[in-house]
Amino acid sequence: MARTRRNPEDNHLPVRVYRGRSAFEFKPVNGGTVRLCSLKCSIAEIWIHYEKYITDEKNTENYKSLVEQFLKSADFIELSRETQKDYNKYANKVLPVFGKMHPNNIKPEHVRKYMDKRGLNSRTQANREKTFMSRVFRWGYERGMVKLNPCQGVKQFKEKARERYITDREYEALFQSAPLIVQVAMELAYLCCARQQDVLSLKKDQIMDVGIYIKQGKTGKSQIKGWSDRLHKIISMASELPLDESISSLFIVHQQNGRAYTRDGFNSRWRKAKEQAVINHPELSFDFTFHDLKAKGISDLDGTLQEKQKISGHKNIGQTARYDRKVEIVPVVGNQK
């Protein structure tokens, strides 16, 4: 039986709800204080806030339920489709480990231990999964669903910057071994210094008199890539991509049914093109990624690093420097001009 309140007016308050200095507050069994509502609220309004809190608390009884709520949230829905797919993949990795734990019982040392074990197989994936966990905790913390973000302060593994530069010979060998769909995507990524998803999502209405309008999905930077003879040629080649009868497509890079390629669907075509290139040119190495095409484009640009940054759309010059991978040719002693 609940004990009698000091203030008789508070006898009708819900269990563990008290009148604070500026608001009615709920005090959980495991400690802490949760603000429910203003002191101006009526008893009926207090009960509404109380019941909502209790319902939300039950819905976050473990980390799995917190993740499930995040994956249904507006924050998640606003992410790009590819990021959503990545987050679902990361969730499938961390939930078998943390899913049954209450979010408030997950400590930095638990995250560190997970990182160390996961890092034995892939340090990059360990970093990505920790970033996902932190995003979920931050979302829950902002909504009063968890007390803290245990991922804060946990050091990520240092990732080695990629240095792979695709030579002109390697590029041409792969281009000649690839089907038309891969050729079109390669040229768009290289000439426009564009990310894969920006290439796959390009629509025909982005083709303008002065060039191709591209809004980068990652940075939000909008640019018009001015026409060149080579860019005109690849857009003309894209118009030859096969389409089913009576089908039209909104996309420049499209499937036969007119739909845009998914990342996984296109990557399958990309891998097969590289496998064919290895057969056709066993003397060459094709150990590069599609994203390395953007780096080749930036590396092959003329001008200073500042000028390359402006064309690439990077937010800071350090990002551009990481993409500028062509090895500089310098004179030997006695051959300086």
Walk me through the structure.
- By secondary structure, the protein is mostly helical.
- 47% of the residues lie in helices and 7% in strands.
- It is elongated.
- It folds into 3 domains: 13-59, no CATH class; 63-142, DNA polymerase, domain 1 (Orthogonal Bundle); 168-323, Intergrase catalytic core (hpI Integrase, Chain A, Orthogonal Bundle), CATH 1.10.443.
- It has 14 helices and 5 strands.
- The model has no long low-confidence stretch (mean pLDDT 89).
- α4 (81-98) crosses α6, α7 (168-177) crosses α11 and α8 (180-192) crosses α12.
- The chain has a 3-stranded antiparallel sheet with strand order 1-2-3, covered by helices on one side.
Please supply descriptive tags for the structure shown above.
single chain, 337 residues, mainly alpha, DNA polymerase, domain 1, hpI Integrase, Chain A, two-stranded antiparallel sheet, 14 helices, 7% strand
Please, how many domains? 3
Strand content: 5-15%
The first-to-last residue Cα distance is 94 Å
Q: Which structural category fits the helices and strands?
A: mainly alpha
User: Whole-number radius of gyration?
Assistant: 28 Å
CATH architecture of the largest domain: Orthogonal Bundle
Short description:
The chain is mostly helical and 337 residues long.
